[in-house]
């Protein structure tokens, strides 16, 4: 659906240049929610703004639904942009227009009939739950309500793609969740492709299908959210995950605490239905190994349950090896820690 090829963006001219993106390739599938996570200055906004050419890349190609946008004339680009909606961190609403008029704005630009506008805007007001607020001005709304107006306005021209630049960063955690649920709902309902950028791993974890980690203008890691979240390969990714989960200090102390000579600390990862099964009890019953729990988490990635349990197995080296072998054979991931 979206293909970025060799994307490079250099800001400025002469000696004062900053390379925001460097030879970046990225492929986003139709109908997925794709997250891009990175620290401040990593190039996230530049990347997402290149997808609708709000920012023109210095080099490279931007393909959306089979069309290369950098090759289009002004008029052709305007038409293609209608298929790409966008929402922003600070909402970017027209402060002197009502909720209704903000949502109607993109339709008036393409001179839609009054009746068609009215029916579309009312439909969108219902979708985002703002029917009762249609005559209010942005200043009379909460942050979450303003972002709902942003979403409705972005959907007015029936886009195939929705770009979200830190759309929940200005919102409190509960409001963030309600906007994320709204995005998930419209993704499912309209089969809309959503590209979302954020610096918060929990945003990725709650609604994204796949994720790319951007650092220094390049992608350092990407894949299914479960894979990247549970088996991060790059240090930057690990940092983002650590900031969401329990911190390492107490765990390190638990691993280093006095323990029997013949023992082994391991991290066991359960994914999907296996999270709720009794595999671990069965296996240790068979092998005679006992264990102490050092740390544990059970949560979900999008709708998929997962568990991570850090335990110290105690028993003979042979029995511990057998235990790890059996757990692995049952489809659990076991990582030896010390
Ligand atoms: N208009 C501009 N002119 C010059 N440099 C720019 C411009 N916009 C961005 N940059 C530089 O490009 C790099 C990437 O910026 P970008 O805004 O894409 O980062 P970001 O990941 O969105 O950061 P944040 O999380 O703070 O929003 C930064 O070093 C930034 O200073
Ligand atoms: Mg940004």
Architecture of the largest domain, according to CATH? 3-Layer(aba) Sandwich
Overall geometry comes to elongated
Return the CATH topology of the largest domain: Rossmann fold
Average residue-wise pLDDT: 94
End-to-end Cα distance: 44 Å
Which regions have little confidence, pLDDT < 50, spanning 5+ residues? Answer: none
Strand content: 25-35%
Structural description of this entry:
With 338 residues, the protein is an alpha/beta fold. It folds into two domains: 235 residues, Rossmann fold (3-Layer(aba) Sandwich), CATH 3.40.50.300; 92 residues, ACT domain (Alpha-Beta Plaits). It has twelve helices and 14 strands. The strands form three sheets. It has a six-stranded mixed sheet with strand order 6-7-8-3-9-10, with helices on both faces. Strands 2-1-4-5 form a four-stranded antiparallel sheet, with helices on one face. A four-stranded antiparallel sheet has the order 12-13-11-14, with helices on both faces. Helix 4 crosses helix 5 and helix 5 packs parallel to helix 6. The longest helix has 18 residues. It is elongated. The structure holds adenosine-5'-triphosphate and magnesium ion. Adenosine-5'-triphosphate binds next to strand 2 and helix 1. The site of adenosine-5'-triphosphate has 13 residues, from strand 2 and helix 1.
Short description:
The chain folds into two domains: 2-236, Rossmann fold (3-Layer(aba) Sandwich); 245-336, 2-Layer Sandwich (Alpha-Beta Plaits). It has 338 residues and is of the alpha/beta class. The chain is built from twelve helices and 14 strands.
